[in-house]
TrEMBL record:
Protein known as: diguanylate cyclase
Organismal lineage: Bacteria, Pseudomonadati, Pseudomonadota, Gammaproteobacteria, Oceanospirillales
Listed GO CC annotations: plasma membrane
All residue ranges annotated as the GGDEF domain in the record: 166-303
Keyword Calcium: no
Length: 311
């Protein structure tokens, strides 16, 4: 989590004395990044992703408004809140800045308390917005990514795989006979099983190498960019064996059963003519087939052999 680290404020002003004054006011609370003109400011905003930008209106060459336009038109910087700073005592400038999307406006001369209060307020809002965004992508029970996050990530990985002609593997994983387990021990214990299985799945993928998500109910997805079928199958086997080692038993119909999972998998080299939904369906169909033919197994979709690009 990035929440614990100090927040960063980028100050863009053409006068060194102003940069110094503002930086003296803020540096106790935050890390201050300085830029002496609009071009440098835009570049540093893209590179360093500050939490807030303080932007001087009157600057030679690229003024504050033009700088703001650049920031707004770049997806990498458009969400960063901007406070305009100027000596202009004219409400039309204030209005123009706010209409352009500035979150606030501070007039010179700068009063330490006012600058601090406004900066703190907007940093607090930024922090809350980021936390809400993170929460909106996490499954509260298992702490895995939720389905929404999975959909976001697979879309971007799919595009990236098309661009770089790389392969993409997908596992759809479902806990076998989960209903029996719930019926036997109740939903609270069922939730514990979901957590344990989730934690095993998460432990099999290094962060940055893939994404494990709770797709819904007792179904999970594991997205493995750049994993060949062989590599992804290995991960799937590892998951199955670790889950078996959890040794979670239940009684059903006079018999003792153990928690296992079924896995459907698919690997492809996505191309712009392919449909992402079909790729998911191929893995999901294999999961259904695994479920219908005895469970506790991996079935892999192999209809993609011809899609391997000739390099
Ligand atoms: Mg100026």
């Amino acid at each position: 989590m990035t929440m614990a680290s100090r927040q960063r404020v980028l100050v863009i002003d053409d006068e060194k004395i102003n940069l110094k004054v503002i930086s003296d006011i803020l540096r106790e609370d935050v890390d201050v990044i300085l830029a002496i003109n609009g071009e440098q400011g835009v570049r540093k905003a893209v590179e360093l992703q500050p939490d807030l930008i303080l932007l001087d209106v009157l600057m030679p060459n690229m003024d504050g408004y033009e700088t703001m336009t650049h920031l707004c038109h770049d997806v990498r910087t458009s969400a960063i809140p901007v406070i305009f700073i100027t000596a202009l005592n004219d409400s039309s400038h204030e209005e123009r800045a706010l209409l352009m999307g500035a979150c606030d406006y501070i007039q010179k001369p700068l009063y330490t308390n006012i600058v601090q209060a406004r900066v703190r307020l907007h940093l607090q809002l930024t922090k809350q917005r980021k936390m809400l965004e993170e929460l909106a992508h996490i499954d509260p029970l298992t702490s895995l990514a939720n389905r929404r996050k999975y959909e976001d990530v697979i879309s971007s990985e799919w595009q990236s795989a098309i661009e770089h002609q790389e392969c993409l593997s997908l596992l759809v994983i479902d806990i076998d006979n989960f209903k029996h387990y719930n019926d036997c021990y109740g939903h609270a214990t069922g939730d514990k099983v979901l957590k344990q299985v989730a934690s095993v799945l998460a432990s099999q993928v290094n962060p940055g190498e893939g994404l494990v998500a709770r797709y819904g109910g007792e179904e999970f997805t594991m997205l493995l960019p750049r994993f060949s079928q062989h590599e992804a199958t290995k991960v799937a086997h590892q998951c199955m064996s670790e889950i078996e080692h959890l040794n979670l038993c239940y009684h059903h119909g006079g018999q003792t059963g153990q928690v296992t999972v079924s896995v459907g998998g698919a690997t492809c080299y996505p191309q712009s003519s392919h449909l992402l939904s079909e790729f998911f369906d191929r893995a999901d169909n294999k999961l259904v087939q695994a479920k219908n033919t005895g469970k506790n197994k991996i079935l892999w979709d192999v209809s993609d052999k011809l899609d391997v690009p000739v390099k």
